[in-house]
């Protein structure tokens, strides 16, 4: 019996269910659909969620698809969205770089990508001024990551200002405690924003 796997993946034209049946793929990108072992089951899942379907390039299609045939014309558009290497650098001078980096990684993983990280040392070589996350994917991935980062950075300004004001109102604490409080609020905001973005992308 031919082995069949399927995964839902966001593309520039919408979410698609990629069907892998009798193929040579060692890894399936996207959100793997549990309990799918046949082409019919993969097509039923796609129809239920309003997704298009397509077979991976090396699949040996052993079952005749009924509805998914209409999705085949969309394949050429998918080919045009070529995967390229791109890097996103996030600042760490405010000591929130680790949270930014982890959020970007989470978004890339939700999109179905792999990644590599590097750090940018400060001039004294005693710490990191920034972190760089590099991945390979279509242009839509890069737009998604950069748009999230820009929106989060803009909102972070307000979050920090509010947290600083709240920390000043704290009684019976040291200046160091106040600083820790507003910095903790900023880190928690970035982490939560990244988690929300990743969850939206994976459809959870």
What's the SSE blueprint?
Layout: E1 4-11, E2 14-21, E3 31-32, H1 39-49, E4 52-55, H2 75-80, E5 84-91, H3 97-111, E6 115-121, E7 128-137, H4 139-168, H5 175-202
Structural summary, described in words:
- A hairpin with a 6-residue loop joins strand 6 and strand 7.
- Helix 3 packs antiparallel against helix 4, helix 3 packs parallel to helix 5 and helix 4 runs antiparallel to helix 5.
- The protein is built from five helices and seven strands.
- About 9% of the residues have low confidence.
- A four-stranded mixed sheet has the order 3-1-2-4, with helices on one face.
- With 204 residues, the chain is of the alpha+beta class.
- Helix content is 44%, strand content 23%.
Describe this protein with a few key phrases.
about 200 residues; alpha+beta; three-stranded antiparallel sheet; 7 strands; elongated
Mean pLDDT across the residues is 83
Largest sheet: 4 strands, mixed
The proportion of residues in beta strands is: 15-25%
Tell how many strands the DSSP assignment holds: 7
Question: What is the distance, rounded to the nearest whole angstrom, between the alpha carbons of the first and last residues?
Answer: 31 Å
In short:
This protein is α+β, with helices and mostly antiparallel strands and 204 residues long.
């Amino acid at each position: 019996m031919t082995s069949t796997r399927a995964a839902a993946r966001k593309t520039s034209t919408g979410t698609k269910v990629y069907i892998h049946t009798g193929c040579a793929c060692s890894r399936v990108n996207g959100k793997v659909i549990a309990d799918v072992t046949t082409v019919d089951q993969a097509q039923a899942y796609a129809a239920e969620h309003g997704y298009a379907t397509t077979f991976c390039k090396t699949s040996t299609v052993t079952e005749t698809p009924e509805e998914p045939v209409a999705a085949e014309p969309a394949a050429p558009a998918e080919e045009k969205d070529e995967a390229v290497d791109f890097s996103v650098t996030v600042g760490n001078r405010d000591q929130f770089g680790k949270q930014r980096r982890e959020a970007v990684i989470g978004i890339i993983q939700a999109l179905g990508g792999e990644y590599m990280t590097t750090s940018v040392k400060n001039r004294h070589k005693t710490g990191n001024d920034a972190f760089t996350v590099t991945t390979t994917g279509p242009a839509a991935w890069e737009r998604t990551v950069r748009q999230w980062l820009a929106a989060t950075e803009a909102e972070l300004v307000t979050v920090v200002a509010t947290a600083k004001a709240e920390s000043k109102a704290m009684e019976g604490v040291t200046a160091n405690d106040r600083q820790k409080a507003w910095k903790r609020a900023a880190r928690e905001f970035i982490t939560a924003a990244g988690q929300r973005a990743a969850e939206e992308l994976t459809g959870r």
